[in-house]
Design a protein that fits this description.
Blueprint lengths: L1 E3 L9 H5 L5 E4 L2 E4 L9 H5 L5 E3 L16
Antiparallel strand pairs: 1-4, 2-3
Length: 71
């Protein structure tokens, strides 16, 4: 399940814009995730610049760009 750390959220709304299930909404102090609508695609976790979103409270790792292919 996608989990959320309110202390890391900067309310940039990138997760909301990325979510194709429309299950994330901006609230006064952060975001709210409707897990009944979430398809667990994890795109919100990947897009979050502050790693405020995670999978079962396991933080995502930052991408090491040296391992990416040059296109």
């Amino acid at each position: 399940m996608v989990t959320y750390d309110n202390n890391k959220c900067i309310q940039c709304a990138l997760c909301i814009k990325t979510c194709h299930e429309y299950c994330i909404t901006l609230i006064e102090n952060g975001i709210d995730i409707d897990h009944n609508l979430c398809s667990t695609c994890t795109q919100c976790i990947v897009i979050c610049p502050n790693q405020a979103l995670s999978w079962n409270n396991i933080p995502a790792e930052k991408i090491n760009k040296k391992f990416l292919y040059n296109i």
